[in-house]
Amino acid sequence: MTDTRKTIYYDGACPLCTLEIAHYQKQDGAENLCFRDVSRADETPGPDLTREQALARFHIRQADGTLLSGAAAFVAIWDDLPKWRWAARLARLPGILPMMELGYRLFLPIRPFLARMIRK
Predict the structure, then answer these.
(1) Which of 100, 103, 114, 118 has CB atoms 3.0–4.6 Å from 15's, for a disulfide?
(2) What confidence tens digit (pLDDT) does each residue in 46-88 have?
């Protein structure tokens, strides 16, 4: 039997990432998502996604096998969470997704600093 859920690859060693994923896991619709912690040494995301890539940038795999990352991955998750569908619709307005992706790319270099602050 093939899994028809989206697979979310997240960094479970990052407290910021863990907080966000925990929030998503509590939402209605989360039962349609498969969460995989790629910080675990035994986790292998797949032949087209290394563990290092998955730790460096947020990725999801659609049920059809398509890999999405960054802002597009967040939007795909929001599609499955009823309380977040408004954000997915907003993100699809012209010009919004590229701005979100730019914001995400600007966020990535400061993520380790924020994670250290949360740990303290």
Answers:
(1) 118
(2) 889 999 999 999 999 999 999 999 999 999 999 999 999 999 9
How many Å apart are CA 75 and CA 90, to the nearest integer?
A: 9
Q: What is the pTM of this model?
A: 0.87
Answer yes or no: are the C-beta atoms of 14 and 111 closer than 8 Å: yes
- Could you please report the per-residue DSSP string of the chain? ----SEEEEE-TT-HHHHHHHHHHHTSTTGGGEEEEETTSTT---BTTB-HHHHHHS-EEE-TTS-EEETHHHHHHHHHH-GGGHHHHHHHTSTTHHHHHHHHHHHHGGGHHHHHHHHH-
How do residues 5-19 score in pLDDT, each as one tens digit? 899 999 999 888 999
Give strand pairing partners of 36: 9
